[in-house]
Write a structure and sequence with these properties.
The protein has eleven helices and two strands. The protein is mainly α. The chain has one domain: Serine Threonine Protein Phosphatase 5, Tetratricopeptide repeat, CATH 1.25.40. A two-stranded antiparallel ribbon has the order 1-2. Strand 1 and strand 2 form a beta hairpin. The longest helix has 16 residues. 29% of the residues are buried. About 6% of the residues have low confidence. This is PARK2 co-regulated. One of its GO terms (molecular function) is Hsp90 protein binding. It comes from Sphaeramia orbicularis (orbiculate cardinalfish). InterPro entries: ARM-like (IPR011989), ARM-type_fold (IPR016024), Parkin_co-regulated_protein (IPR019399).
Length: 218
């Protein structure tokens, strides 16, 4: 029979299952955005003002070839190193602010870089991409509905990270102030998708993110 000593010895070797690796960051290949930036092929420069850094565009942004430039800037969302990360992120938001009807025809070309950015599983990159997705959906009429067919490529990673909220205990979670709490940002993004995605948005979100509850039901 096993004595208490033997039981204690056995318990030392009892270990839990290995992490599945769903949250582990994936290495990211070099981006085309960085290559174009280093060649000096983007008509922009870094400018400092009292509010911080911003992009100084050397041309009227509305005259840019969106079909060429916007997918490249989306590709740069995977960047985490300055200045590439700053130029890609701010450049995307600037172009979405001024693109209007030019944006929706390019949507199919944006899905692959969006998916690649989310699949890095890098928390910073995911948060940046979620904010861009919200801006994209609201950038022009009907964009939210146009995005619905691509949910199956975008939402699986959101489902994986949906419940990842930072437990700050009694302290202040400064990530909330910066909108960098990944779980909250995912919930916010899904609600934006539902509001702007038309009548088929909710059922398609629910299919991939089963724990999501409609924000449209009073």
């Amino acid at each position: 029979p096993c004595t208490n000593v033997h039981k204690n010895l056995f318990s030392v070797f009892v270990v839990g299952p290995r992490p599945a690796g769903a949250f582990r960051e994936r290495p990211s290949a070099p981006t085309n955005f960085r290559m174009f930036y280093e060649r000096g092929e983007f008509p922009m420069a870094l400018e400092h003002d009292t509010k911080g850094n911003r992009i100084a565009w050397k041309v009227d942004i509305t005259t840019l070839d969106y079909n060429h430039y916007l997918p490249l800037f989306f590709d740069g969302l995977r960047e985490t190193v300055h200045p590439y990360e700053f130029f890609a992120r701010q450049g995307v938001h600037d172009m979405l602010d001024h693109g209007g009807p030019k944006i929706q025809p390019i949507l199919p070309q944006l899905i692959t870089p969006i998916r690649k950015a989310l699949n890095t599983r890098n928390r910073q990159v995911i948060c940046t991409t979620l904010k861009v997705l919200q801006h994209l959906v609201m950038s022009t009429d009907m964009m939210g509905e146009a995005l619905v067919p691509y949910y199956r490529q975008i939402l699986p990673i959101l489902n994986t990270f949906k419940n990842m909220n930072i437990n700050s205990g009694d302290g202040i979670d400064y990530s909330q102030q910066k909108r960098e709490n990944i779980g909250d940002l995912i919930q916010e993004t899904l609600e934006v998708f539902e509001r702007y995605g038309g009548e088929n948005a909710f059922i398609n979100i629910k299919y991939i993110v089963p724990t999501y509850h409609s924000c449209m039901i009073a």
